[in-house]
Specification:
The protein is mostly helical. The protein has a single domain, classed as dinb family like domain (Four Helix Bundle (Hemerythrin (Met), subunit A)). It has a two-stranded antiparallel ribbon. A hairpin with a 2-residue loop joins strand 1 and strand 2. Helix 3 packs parallel to helix 5. The radius of gyration is 17 Å and the shape is globular. The N and C termini lie far apart (41 Å). This is DinB family protein. It comes from Bacillus stercoris. InterPro entries: DinB-like, DinB/YfiT-like.
Length: 175
């Protein structure tokens, strides 16, 4: 039976929200498992879409910023350098530097989930109501953690569509 795991070492609502992030992280890893490097960097038939590598990089990049926002700290320079900018000079999702493989991209994402977990251990139910600056507006910590989960699921749909297109293209050329 599917359910979200409620941990005893976190406040109940914090645990529920963290569990949703963790579940989506595991789902993300399972849908990209066993991808070849070519599939990972496939940009669609017309080469105009974001590759699965770009999407994985983007999810980790956005989420690490949420973790530091929730911590109440500015993201450190070394983290900023490691994850790079949110967009390239054209306002598009950047390519991950040096075309890292799937293992490296998943390792970066897992680092983000681990960082979130360590923050969630410290949060109380009341902390979830605290406002955070977000996109010229404000959001609560509760919304921020939920958004991390939702954002991952959103891009998982893009990854699934690209996987399907990749398989159709490979089948077409193998005939």
């Amino acid at each position: 039976m599917k359910d979200l795991f409620i941990r005893n070492d976190m406040a109940p609502t914090v645990s529920l929200l963290y569990s949703a992030v963790e579940e989506n992280s595991l789902r993300l890893a399972s849908i990209v498992s066993h991808m070849t490097h070519s599939e990972l960097y496939y940009k669609g038939r017309c080469q105009t879409k974001n590759s699965m590598a770009q999407l994985l990089h983007h999810i980790a990049n956005v989420d690490i910023r949420w973790v530091w926002r929730i911590k109440g700290n500015r993201i450190p320079n070394h983290i900023e350098q490691a994850y790079g900018p949110m967009t390239d000079q054209n306002g598009q999702l950047p390519e991950p530097k040096n075309q890292p493989g799937l293992d490296e991209l998943l390792k970066r994402h897992q680092h983000v989930v681990n960082e979130l977990k360590s923050v969630c251990y410290t949060l109380t139910e009341n902390d979830l109501h605290q406002p955070l600056s977000y996109d010229g507006d404000t959001a609560t910590i509760r919304w921020g953690i939920w958004h991390m989960s939702d954002h991952s699921r959103y891009h998982q749909a893009h990854i699934e569509a690209l996987k399907k297109e990749w398989k159709q293209d490979v089948a077409k050329y193998e005939r």
